[in-house]
Design goal:
The structure holds 2 protein chains of 2 kinds. Chain A is mainly alpha-helical. Chain A has 6 helices and no strands. The longest helix of chain A is centred in the last third of the chain and has 44 residues. Chain A starts with 6 loop residues before the first helix and ends in a 6-residue tail after the last helix. Chain B is α/β, with parallel strands linked by helices. Chain B is built from 12 helices and 6 strands. In chain B, helix 2 runs antiparallel to helix 12, helix 3 packs across helix 11 and helix 4 runs parallel beside helix 5. The longest helix of chain B is centred in the last third of the chain and has 32 residues. The chains are: A mainly alpha, B alpha/beta. At the A-B interface, helix 2, helix 4 and helix 6 of A face helix 2, helix 4, helix 9, helix 10 and helix 12 of B.
Chain lengths: 203, 272
């Protein structure tokens, strides 16, 4: 065993242990770690956004280079704070509507190509078990979400039931992967504790 | 039987932690079979042209580094072995390029890679989809400066890539853990420009990404920690992921046993 003398490793190890104490129950050590993390993250993101968005747009472009149209975006952005003044709160809807409209247009100009490829990739020759299973899965799952025909209809209800099983298997698979992913994160932290901090197995 | 339904979660955590520490200290050395998907992914990277330029994008932060750092190392090492030019850049995930810089520097030194000529770290850029779209039109304008704050056009490697198009870039290797991630690279860069997209995916999102692999939109995928262990074997450099597989197998067994016990308890109490 060769315990680390690096303050960064010690900080990591102490934080890891402090956070995992929550698994036993809520306690002051956990709350201290949580508060420190939140404070650091908030400060970090504030500084990051200032230097990557606000400074280049306002200080460098608008003021420094005289590109005054940047102020239009600033005004639009600041309008969101009108929501705190009830008499003019409706003005806050303008930046939101602009953002939603812009976002929707942007996505619709790029994303359909991706979706269409996904759709066309389900048009398969039914010459293998996998292709047949995909074909049945697509049709039955779509039927499950087809709400305009009553599920009391035996054909629609039966197909929708198959679709429900497909969805359950997919969700089960996603859940199983999620559980293993979380454990994998713990394995990485255990690696830090055992080998980087305690130096187990090192001369 | 009712007790099976009420096992204290802390017992499960404690048992899990014990299994993790024990299998890490005393590895079992279980064999890891190589899947077709891992082989396909390896071949896609291996068969790029000898003078290929690849973009390696660590689209993650410290929350996912346990699973994605080994994938970054595996991809970087494979590309360095093949002699490809490597450009590290991401958008929005600020910590990504900082986290991987240490590994990249170490592996680059091992292979005699010169910073700015053979590889470069451009850091994290704000903008998500807007950055990606700008990179397609003008990569220098989108990036402006590298990780060290130097103008990107001052580096020889960046002279090779004025735009992120198929003419200049042979593949994008994206390590994915959320949004923005591989789907954004696909929608805004790789599919419109016809650039090969190969991804490293966290275990949790593998089922979500498989349809993109089946449709050919992702040319390959390292599927979680297990997939990375397979990839490490294929490139002949066993790393962190391969070491973790004994532990993950033992944990999977433990979780399965608890699921069975819980279900036995549920079925027994339901009959009452």
């Amino acid at each position: 065993m060769n315990i680390s003398t690096d303050p960064a490793i010690w900080t990591q190890a102490i934080c890891i242990l402090a956070v995992y104490t929550y698994l036993y129950k809520d306690n002051p050590i956990w709350r201290l770690a949580e508060t420190v993390y939140l404070a650091l993250a908030t400060t970090y993101w504030f500084v990051f956004y200032f230097f990557t968005y606000i400074q280049p747009a306002i200080v460098d472009k608008a003021i420094g280079e005289g590109e005054w149209h940047y102020f239009l975006a600033v005004i639009l952005g600041l309008m969101i704070f009108f929501r705190y003044i009830p008499s003019v709160a409706w003005l806050a809807r303008y930046p939101m509507s602009f953002w939603v409209g812009y976002g929707t247009g942007y996505i619709l100009s790029f994303e359909p190509a991706v979706w269409l490829t996904q759709i066309t990739s389900t048009f398969l020759a039914l010459n293998s078990l996998q292709n047949i299973l995909i074909f049945i899965g697509v049709l039955s799952t779509l039927t499950y979400f087809f709400f305009t025909v009553a599920k009391e209809n035996p054909v629609v209800g039966g197909v929708a039931e198959v679709g429900k099983w497909y969805i359950m298997i997919a969700l089960g698979s996603a859940f199983g992967n999620t559980v293993l992913y979380r454990w994998n994160l713990f394995v990485a932290r255990a690696n830090t504790l055992l080998f980087d901090w305690l130096g187990v197995g090192q001369a | 039987m009712e007790r099976l339904m009420k096992i204290d979660r802390r017992i499960i955590y404690l048992l899990g932690a014990a299994i993790v520490f024990l299998t890490m200290l005393y590895p079992l050395g279980l064999p890891v079979a190589i899947s077709d998907l891992a082989r396909q992914t390896y071949n896609e990277v291996e068969n790029l042209p000898d003078d290929a330029v690849v973009i390696l994008s660590p689209m993650y932060d410290s929350g996912a580094m346990g699973e994605l750092n080994p994938m970054f190392v595996a991809f970087f090492r494979h590309c360095a072995e093949r002699g490809y030019k490597i450009i590290i850049v991401n958008t929005q995930w600020v910590q990504g390029p900082q986290i991987v810089h240490k590994f990249a520097t170490e592996i680059a030194e091992e292979y005699g890679y010169v910073y700015g000529e053979d590889w470069i770290n451009l850091g994290s850029k704000p903008g998500a989809a807007i950055f990606l779209q700008t990179a397609v039109k003008d990569f220098w304008e989108a990036c402006i400066e590298d990780f060290n704050g130097q103008p990107v056009e001052s580096y020889p490697i960046m002279q090779l890539v004025p735009k992120v198009t198929a003419e200049y870039v042979d593949a994008c290797l994206v390590l994915n853990c959320g949004t923005p991630g591989a789907p954004e690279w696909l929608a805004y860069v790789c599919q419109p420009e016809g650039i090969k997209l190969i991804i490293g995916e966290i275990q949790m999102s593998v089922p979500e990404s498989m349809p993109y692999v089946n449709s050919g939109q992702y040319a390959g995928m390292i599927a979680g920690s297990r997939g990375c262990a397979e990839y490490e074997q294929l490139i002949g450099h066993p790393g962190q992921a391969l070491k973790a597989q004994d532990t993950m197998s033992a944990i999977a067994l433990m979780v399965t046993l608890f699921i069975i016990l819980g279900n036995i308890g549920y079925l027994a109490t339901r009959k009452k």
